[in-house]
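[Discussion] Sanity-checking designs against the backbone

I'm trying to build intuition for which residues belong where. Below is a structure token string of 219 positions. I'd appreciate it if someone posts a full sequence so I can compare it with mine line by line.
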């Protein structure tokens, strides 16, 4: 069992939360927001169960909680089912982020926003934030409606210490995808860290969300 924390602040931010609740399983940190851009979910928590044979037996995007009796019952049933008795789910191969390959594709398709976005993702995963910011900017110039490019640009700028510019780019991404709670929460984490560290204030989030939605409705 492992968990993944979506936090642009890096590994140290969620560490205190894991230690406070005595988490004993590994926790990975997705500091670039890659998971939600790859898989398309717009909120957390999410749950996926993969058995020993590599078969996806369960997945629930948004609304996953071990406090839900129906989820616990379903997972317990799956754990009791012998491995291999359930057909394998279709597999989707994820190509490795190889900078050289992405550079060739981006050069060959300079007017293709997806090619530029792929290069930007590669740079971001390699920790080359400045190059990533340039590539995300090109992708956004080609497709001004790409929330992924706007969010990625914001993440790159944040890693470069350009917090004001990062927040502006994340807000652009949120305008493009107003129901994307992950984007909204990353903005909140930076602007109101006291509401997330060391303890997450869920009541505050609900009030804040209602206030912002009301303001957006009026706008």
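Best answer:
Here's mine. Compare freely.
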């Amino acid at each position: 069992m492992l968990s993944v924390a979506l936090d642009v602040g890096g590994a140290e931010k969620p560490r205190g939360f894991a230690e406070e609740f005595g988490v004993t399983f590994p926790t990975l940190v997705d500091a670039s927001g890659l998971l939600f851009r790859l898989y398309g979910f717009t909120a957390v928590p999410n749950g996926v169960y993969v058995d020993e044979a590599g078969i996806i037996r369960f997945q629930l995007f948004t609304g996953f909680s071990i406090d839900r009796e129906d989820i616990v019952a379903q997972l317990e049933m799956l754990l009791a089912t012998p491995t291999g008795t359930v057909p394998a789910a279709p597999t989707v191969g994820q190509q490795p982020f190889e900078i050289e390959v992405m550079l060739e594709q981006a050069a060959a398709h300079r007017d293709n926003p997806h090619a530029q976005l792929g290069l930007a993702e590669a740079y971001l995963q390699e920790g080359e934030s400045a190059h990533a910011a340039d590539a995300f900017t090109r992708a956004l110039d080609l497709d001004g409606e790409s929330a992924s490019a706007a969010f990625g640009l914001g993440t790159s700028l944040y890693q470069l210490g350009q917090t004001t510019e990062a927040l502006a780019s994340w807000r652009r991404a949120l305008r493009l995808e107003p129901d994307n709670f992950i984007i909204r929460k990353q903005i909140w984490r930076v602007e109101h860290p006291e509401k997330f560290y060391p303890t997450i204030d869920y009541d505050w989030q609900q009030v804040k969300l209602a206030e912002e939605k009301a303001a957006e409705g009026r706008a």
